[in-house]
Specification:
Length: 192
């Protein structure tokens, strides 16, 4: 995907991240599927120490090239967090935005991300609302194969407090060539 164009995304942080993380005190953040780095840079410029992970070396190079004024605040990491979980309890914020997290019977990849949230930390998960997604069988895409906030909320144990679990109109223009008009958002606090 990143080889197809010089820039894939706008360079602006996701509107859900801005709306939901502005009031959080800076700490350690994990940006899952960081892409070209806009979310990681937004967090770092607000005082967060960020681990920005992606499977694409091209995306990580672009992100690092855009990382001005945040020296030492972002670690760009090539990793597949669906197969190699991040360290348990290591992050005050785990931010998962539009990351294609496929459902698995054991929920292994999801549990790895949940476990990475430190006590007192926040999980922020945002994706396209299911109502905006259409199966594309010829491409092998079925929206039901991927987690939605409701799925995750149902899996959280009593050590979590769900603060937000909703679909809301997108605050930013929809991505070019798509029909995405709503975001599905989960914000959950891991109790201390």
């Amino acid at each position: 995907m990143y080889r197809s164009r010089d820039r894939i995304f706008s360079g602006n942080p996701n509107a859900v991240l801005v709306a939901e993380a502005t009031d959080l005190p800076p700490g350690r953040a994990l940006d899952v599927g960081c892409g070209e780095g806009a979310d990681a840079l937004w967090l770092a410029r607000r005082g967060w120490q960020v681990t920005a992970a992606d499977v694409s070396e091209i995306a990580l190079r672009r992100a690092a090239a855009a990382a001005t004024g945040v020296e030492g605040r972002v670690a760009w990491v090539r990793a597949d967090l669906t197969t190699a979980p991040p360290p348990a309890g290591a992050f005050d914020l785990v931010s998962v935005h539009y990351f294609p997290l496929r459902r698995r019977p054991d929920h292994g990849a999801l549990r790895g991300l949940l476990d990475a949230v430190a006590p007192g930390g926040t999980l922020l998960f945002a994706t396209h609302a299911l109502s905006d997604l259409v199966p594309r069988h010829e491409e092998g895409f079925d929206p039901a194969d991927y987690y939605q906030p409701d799925d995750i909320a149902r899996l959280l144990d009593p050590a979590w407090n769900v603060l937000i679990n909703e679909a809301r109109p997108r605050a930013a223009p929809r991505p070019a060539g798509t029909h995405h008009t709503h975001d599905a958002v989960l914000r959950a606090l891991r109790l201390p």
